[in-house]
Amino acid sequence: MANSKARAVLQVVISFIYTGLVIGTDCKDGWTAYHNSCYLFARNHASTFTEAEHYCGQHGGHLVSMETKAENMFIRDYLHGLKDEDRWIGLTDEMIEGAWVWYSSNTDATYTDWFPGQPNSHGGNEDCVILGYHNDYKWVDAPCTSSYEPICEIVSGEVDIVG
Ligand SMILES: [Ca+2]
Ligand SMILES: [Ca+2]
User: Fold this and answer.
1) Among 14, 20, 38, 95, who pairs with 31 as Cys (CB 3.0-4.6 Å)?
2) Is 40:63 a contact under the CB 8 Å cutoff?
3) pTM above the 0.90 mark?
4) pLDDT score of 6
């Protein structure tokens, strides 16, 4: 008797946790949830950094910002699964050379995951950042005018402010 009561209580607790998880990770169709954010790995929207950011903005988000090692690993693992091309992230040093800033929040990148030898500002004209297919999806600086697919991020709570 006590045992079945305990089991019933446990079931209620589990269903609460499950409901909480589902609500906490509610993303639009085609978007992928991780912690407090939804991510879009766009297809057929290869464009410049500025246009890629504009594309994400139209969906109520920004180019992705990976503030933590965990978030960065989630993105890289996802790309390893997709096995597709280079993609923009929302990191740039267009304002001050060498000062890498997350476009979405205008904050300095404290955590970084550069590919060895990067950023190298090749040709003095690489102020935006991609996750390189040939670089194990680590960070590589590239010309902002090059064309790549965006990775967009909507941080939970951001949708209403933008919309
Ligand atoms: Ca983020
Ligand atoms: Ca580079």
Assistant:
1) 38
2) no
3) no
4) 74
- Rounded Cα distance, 61 and 25, in Å: 16
**Which residues make Cβ contacts (< 8 Å) with residue 94, sequence separation at least 6?**
127, 128, 144
- Counting ligands in written order, the one closest to the CA of 68 is 1
SS3 per-residue string spanning the chain:
CHHHHHHHHHHHHHHHHHHHHHHHCCCCCCCEEECCEEEEECCCCCECHHHHHHHHHHCCCEECCCCCHHHHHHHHHHHHHHCCCCEEEEEECCCCCCCCEECCCCEECCCCCECCCCCCCHHHCCCEEEECHHHCCCEEEECCCCCEEEEEEEECCHHHHHC
C-alpha to C-alpha distance for 31 and 163, rounded to whole angstroms = 17
Instruction: Quote the CA–CA distance of 97 and 124 in Å, as a whole number.
Output: 10
* pLDDT, position 90: 98
What is the C-alpha separation between 94 and 117, in angstroms, rounded?
Answer: 19
CA of 18 to the centre of ligand 1 (A): 23
Amino acid at residue number 72 = N
Distance from the alpha carbon of residue 114 to the mean position of ligand 2, in angstroms:
10
